[in-house]
Amino acid sequence: MSHDTIAAIATAVGEGSIAVIRLSGPDAIARTAAVLRTKADFEAAETHTVHYGHIVDPSTGEKVEEVLVTLMRGPRSFTGEDVVEIGTHGGVIAARNVLQLVLRQEGIRLAEPGEFTKRAFLNGRIDLTQAEAVIDLIRSKSDRAFQVAMKQSEGSLSRRIIELRQRILEVIAHVEVNIDYPEHDVEELTSAFIREHCGEALAGVNLLLKTASEGKILREGIVTAIVGRPNVGKSSLLNALSHSNKAIVTDIPGTTRDVIEEFVTVNGIPLRLLDTAGIRETSDVVERIGVERSRSALEDADLILYVLNRNELLHDDDRELMERLAGRQVVVIFNKTDLPQLLDASEVEKVFSAERIVPMSVLEDEGIDRLENVISDLFFGGRIESNDLTYVTNVRHISLLERARQSLVDAIEATDIGVPIDIIQIDVQQAWELLGEVIGDAAGESLLDQIFSQFCLGK
Ligand code: GDP
Predict the structure, then answer these.
(1) How much is the pTM?
(2) Mean pLDDT, to the nearest integer, of 15-44?
(3) Residue 59 in contact with residue 50, Cβ under 8 Å?
(4) Which of 362, 403, 411, 446 has the fewest CB atoms within 10 Å, measured from its CB?
(5) 107-146 tens-digit pLDDT
């Protein structure tokens, strides 16, 4: 348990109808009571109760804010400590005034980013993958990503890891016995045991790693550029995608350009459409071929939606563009199917396979479903519908899993060529420790600081 009490504004900065100041620690209730005027005695109140009252400046007696205060005594709270949440009017000023009054007291300080969640972890309320999932929950930009993070915060990844570690622990125990009492064991049998159990653990690690690339997409979105000649229907397509799929405009601070990016979800998959300025830039890609910015926007994209007007003959600009797009993840849209076909499709089909070509009429709302299915097949082979939402989405987890995989491979190979068992044991133990690091078993202090500092203030 920590000995000091922390406080911070827990809601997002900006306009909202309420804001919440959260306090956690041994003095959370007393420090709140010192600035709170309620009918009943707040300090004596039952746990998990809500209180109406006013925040009062103790030095002047002046009412600062009308509030609803929630009291949760440890250990049944988010952090495991005494927690108070003060709900104030929305906006920055009210919450800041209350926070300043609270912080003016002795023995209470402003929380560091992620410190509430860090305490929850240190007090055993959640494990490390769950804590990290809280970061993802805050950041998730699509329903699907949210569900994945939710699942992780409930501990589904941890359970998998614990199972794998159990397998490996059996090997460690078995080998330990063999080393201590070689006369009781047959070397042959131990080798077979290592091979079998490490093999199973390896298969499990591989399965988790396979989800990693999908997880990254779910979390960060598929970077998508819409390209094509002027007037083919790019903006119309963008609008159609946005309207049928509740566009989410997300402000992502910390990206290099600090731009507002537009997210649309397609079959639950977030597409990160290059910011509007970027899209405009790429829309003019043919006219501006050779312009550095449009070139790099194209190069950065994971997915390119290439729009052609089926009502026009193929233009030389298109031939040039097709050459540049060859080999990329491209979905070709033959737009304006409501008009007579003039385009020679066979020339396009020489470069792009037919299943990547979607005839559409954006104007008449035809073909959007097909486009969405082609996109989800492209990135998930249709498997996105699966209910198994244990995705590894975190870079730290991925790197640990990759190292654990290597240790297991080394152990199995060493067994095959007859390396002494106590040497093999080193690799097996390594795999066990690396997997332990994923869930925060034996996590060092610096690792913890690094993880929790990614949180926003008040979490
Ligand atoms: P952009 O320059 O590529 O962004 O093209 P726009 O989206 O601005 O569309 C250019 C014109 O084509 C507009 O007048 C649209 O209404 C029209 N348009 C877009 N999609 C269709 C379609 O499917 N059928 C027809 N007939 N017109 C379309």
Answers:
(1) 0.49
(2) 92
(3) no
(4) 446
(5) 899 888 788 888 888 888 888 777 777 777 766 666 666 7
Contact 95, 64 (CB under 8 A): no
Task: Determine the topology of domain 219-380 in CATH.
Answer: Rossmann fold (3.40.50)
Distant-in-sequence, close-in-space partners of 443: CB < 8 Å, separation ≥ 6:
128, 437
Q: How many angstroms is it from 235 CA to the middle of ligand 1?
A: 8
> Which atom of ligand 1 lies nearest, measured to the CA of 229?
3
Tens of pLDDT along 388-423?
445 666 667 888 899 999 999 999 999 999 888 888
Joined tokens for residue 364: 């008449």
Nearest C-alpha to atom 11 of ligand 1 is from which residue? 231
CA of 176 to the centre of ligand 1 (A): 71
- Distance between Cα 241 and ligand 1 center (Å): 14
CATH 3.90.350.10 fits 5-125, yes or no: no
Distance between Cα 231 and ligand 1 center (Å): 6
Ligand 1 pocket, residue 234 CB under 6 Å? yes
- Ligand 1 contacts CB of residue 339 (under 6 A): yes
Q: Which atom of ligand 1 is nearest to the CA of 364?
A: 23
Q: What is the DSSP letter of 272?
A: E
Enumerate the domain spans of the chain.
5-125, 131-211+392-439, 219-380
Q: What is the pLDDT of residue 249?
A: 38
Give mean pLDDT, residues 168-187: 74
pLDDT (tens digit, 9 = 90+) per residue, 41-59? 999 999 999 999 999 998 8
CB 76 within 8 A of CB 120: no
Q: Which CATH class is domain 131-211+392-439?
A: mainly alpha
Phi first, then psi: give them for residue 136, nearest 5 degrees: -65, -35
Q: Do 131-211+392-439 and 219-380 share a fold?
A: no
